[in-house]
Specification:
Elements (H helix, E strand, L loop, with lengths): L7 H20 L3 H12 L3 H29 L1 H21 L3 H29 L2 H31 L4 H5 L1 H15 L6 H8 L9 H19 L6 H23 L13 H31 L4 H7 L1 H21 L2 H17 L9 H29 L6 H26 L10 H29 L36
Helix pairs in contact: 1-5, 1-6, 1-8, 2-3, 2-6, 2-12, 3-4, 3-5, 3-10, 3-17, 4-5, 4-8, 5-6, 6-13, 6-14, 10-11, 10-17, 12-16, 12-17, 12-18, 14-16, 15-16, 15-18, 16-17
Length: 498
Amino acid sequence: MSVRLATPQGKWILFTTILGSSMALLDSTVVNVALPRIGEDLNADLAALQWTVNAYMLTLAGLILLGGSLGDHYGRRKVFVIGVVWFALASLLCGLAPTAEILIAARALQGIGGALLTPGSLALIQASFHPDDRARAVGLWSGFGGIGAAVGPFVGGWLVDGPGWRWVFLLNVPLALVCVPVALRHVPESRDTSLAVSAEAGGRQGHFDVLGAVLGALSLALVTYALIEATEGSLVVALTAFAGVAAGVAFVYVEKHRRDPMMPPDIFASRQFTAVNLVTLCVYAAFGGFFFLVSLQLQVVSGYSALAAGTALLPTTVLMLLLSARSGALSERIGPRIPLTVGPLVCAVGMLLMLRVGEDASYPRDVLPAVLVQGLGMVTLVAPLTATVLASVDTSRAGVASGINNAAARAAGLVAVAALPLLAGMGPEAYRSAEAFDASFRRAMPLCAAMLVVGAVLAFAFVRRPAPDCRRPQCRTHGNMTSPPLERPEPEPGRSGA
């Protein structure tokens, strides 16, 4: 079915996909602003705050590739609606959580819902709209999603300072109550019919790599636990670290020997694809650690309210919204090597400028210059990174390549949030003391900057100009600071129908 964008049905499809994806996007950004209040209200230590962030990223990163495959097989609308309902129920549990342990478990459940609805929202647009309207629909979807990312920390800060941090999660419930009926009424069902045909013929696309997804998520979970609890120095921590590495090795083995792997190893035969993903790991590890710590620094040390801390980073997102498309066009003209080298270095300067942010920091004098430099670096970096990932593999593998890159970025942020407090010497109660947290923050920012420098060196050494006829990104307007834009391959004629 091909729906035109100008029709009422087309507008409803665009509305519900934007609303659904914005739910997951908001929760990946606004929770950082609420962390000090969550810790105070639930009497949680720093490790619990790390898990509040990481439990969500863990299940989202581990299952996002599987979520896209489920939609293609069982129906994109069905899986999208299940994801929205799942996400809303998990959000309700987050908002009602009486303890930090229940909140962490609920956040992990949220990530599962996010893994179902995030790839599904874009897949619905590509499967539903007429080919002549598809590019514009994707552009509106990514643009409005960027706006949602921009207002997220502002709304989160307002909720934390107003009705309380629990409403950061409870807000998702009424959004879902609007999203689900609209999707069921106006969005046509679609699936990749070639999967069923291939399965009947004994082909390799009729199964899901559930084992690979479980092993990947398990490896991340065990390694994350070992990093967060490493200060204990116990035998349990050592055994957990070993088990995490073993699960990672098992994941690689399974992916090499499955007929239908979630992450096909031969995709890394492309030197360019491998290099860009290494750059992604470096830069998004730095970003993940930075955005986790800076909201705490502004509130714990500088005395900002949650609203002020959330608003403080708004210029970064605004710059990305305004300039990311131009940055992508520039990269197409001059090649990705220079932007992927210069961008991380500019971001590193921005993080070092954050060392000026201390007690009673002035926003225009101390915070804003660092935020602006950081934003300019991200503008220079993010669009070329996505384009280079897509250009480094065959067009038929664009969806897999984008999913791997997106998952790599989220996994890097996950590990950074776990490891950076350890490397910076933050104790369990560090965020309760302005002096202790400030000292740790000043050790952490140079570490983030160093990761960015490593990413720049890798880009300069290994990234080259792609072929002129390579695939270009559809999502050209970026506002998400936690991961690269997720791309999906356009359905071939006759393959997207129910």
